[in-house]
Design a protein that fits this description.
Length: 173
């Protein structure tokens, strides 16, 4: 698949859930500005109220999309007048410029979502979880150690996480 085709597929994916959008090319699909607005709304939902936009007001849609993009550090390579007769290579160039920047935002948002899904254990819960882990005592200092499953299976013995040094007494094992 060519780079241009990959870019078009990315645009289709980013705008697939929006009404009145059918990105099939890099010309007419972008003429009314709705595809640009949908693309940016996907990343900046608080800045574009997509449900209030209409294909009958393309100048407003285009200006809104390019202003939001510019606000987020994406250089304005096109303007409203350029979109009256959209040129394929101009739109490809613009989308090629914004795609990497928007994709970085996606990765940050995904990472934030993953972090937010990690349960927040209180100290009490954390202590309870530690008690559930198989433990034994260090051969040197005789204090409790927690065995990992891999240490148990590999027969490494009763060592602290810092292999070959006791966590408590710091003596070699």
């Amino acid at each position: 698949m060519s780079k241009t085709n990959n870019l078009l597929q990315w645009c289709k994916f980013q705008t697939k859930d929006y009404d009145n959008i059918n990105v099939t090319n890099f010309t007419n699909s972008w003429r009314d500005g709705l595809a640009f607005c949908a693309l940016l709304n996907n990343f900046f939902p608080d800045e574009i109220n997509y449900s209030k936009l209409s294909s009958t007001n393309p100048d407003y849609n285009i200006e809104l999309a390019f202003s939001v993009a510019e606000k987020h550090g994406i250089e304005r390579l096109l303007d409203v007048e350029d979109m009256k007769y959209p040129e394929r290579l101009s739109i490809i160039t613009y989308i090629s410029t914004i795609q990497p920047k928007l994709s970085k935002l996606t990765n940050k948002n995904e990472n934030a979502n993953i972090i937010n899904q990690i349960p927040k254990f209180g100290v009490q819960n954390l202590k309870q979880k530690q008690e559930e882990i198989p433990k034994d005592t260090c051969r040197t200092c005789k204090k409790p150690i927690f065995k990992s499953q891999s240490a148990i299976e590999s027969g490494l013995g009763d060592f602290h996480e810092e292999r070959f040094v006791s966590y408590n007494c710091k003596k070699p094992l």
